[in-house]
């Protein structure tokens, strides 16, 4: 039933990589995990070994009101996956307009998914404000904003404080209370990275969920279409991922008894 949204004020910060690997870490902690891709880049699937040639997905079929149960993939990691699907610019704009006209296209199936009390849902959302995030945020137990440990991220802290990238107005302020932050790509050997991380950490305080060190193994895992905890379980990045998963786990209700919703995975 809990929904965790991974979001970011800007692209290129490793949001999708973190969503995939935290989903895997949560599964290893005993959670049943479904990870959903709402980003038109459709790259979440690559972390779970889905072939490049497999371009089908849930979001691209959304205007046809598909049965989401039939589109769930069972990955080798044990994490269930609903890929976004391949889409061009025109299709992405059309999908955004469809969600703007009728938010229930997405809200209704998501409510159905969240009726399973034993299921943890992790959502990878597009960078910045989006129709998908505005629909997901009111249902989310937590929104994890991903920032890089650099000067640009330090400059984005006011957007985190205000919840501005979640949307606008009073609703953004309400959702900001569920916001936590993960710093990605922290290099303790680089003065600028270290200083930016320390500045953000001091400002955010307990809202900082954790940090991921900069290691080549993270990029190597993606290149191999594998997960960090599978490829390099003893790396510092792997331990950082476990720590973030433990922080999320501590904020969630206990895992209930297994639930049989009558749907499987392919």
How would you sum up this structure in a few lines?
By secondary structure, this protein is of the alpha/beta class. It has eleven helices and eight strands.
Structure characterization notes:
Pfam families: CBP_BcsQ. InterPro entries: Cellulose_synthase_operon_BcsQ, DNA_Partitioning_ATPase, P-loop_NTPase. This is Cellulose synthase operon protein YhjQ/BcsQ. It comes from Sediminicoccus rosea. With 266 residues, the chain is an alpha/beta fold. The chain has one domain: P-loop containing nucleotide triphosphate hydrolases (Rossmann fold, 3-Layer(aba) Sandwich), CATH 3.40.50. It contains 11 helices and 8 strands. Helix 1 packs across helix 11 (236-251). The longest helix is centred in the last third of the chain and has 16 residues, at 236-251.
Layout of strands and helices, then pairs:
Blueprint: E1 3-7, H1 15-28, E2 32-37, E3 73-74, E4 80-82, H2 89-101, H3 104-113, E5 119-124, H4 131-136, E6 142-148, H5 151-155, H6 157-162, H7 169-176, E7 179-186, H8 191-204, E8 208-213, H9 216-223, H10 228-231, H11 236-251
Parallel strand pairs: 1-5, 1-6, 2-4, 2-5, 6-7, 7-8
Antiparallel strand pairs: 3-4
Helix pairs in contact: 1-11
InterPro entries: Cellulose_synthase_operon_BcsQ, DNA_Partitioning_ATPase, P-loop_NTPase
Protein name: Cellulose synthase operon protein YhjQ/BcsQ
Organism: Sediminicoccus rosea
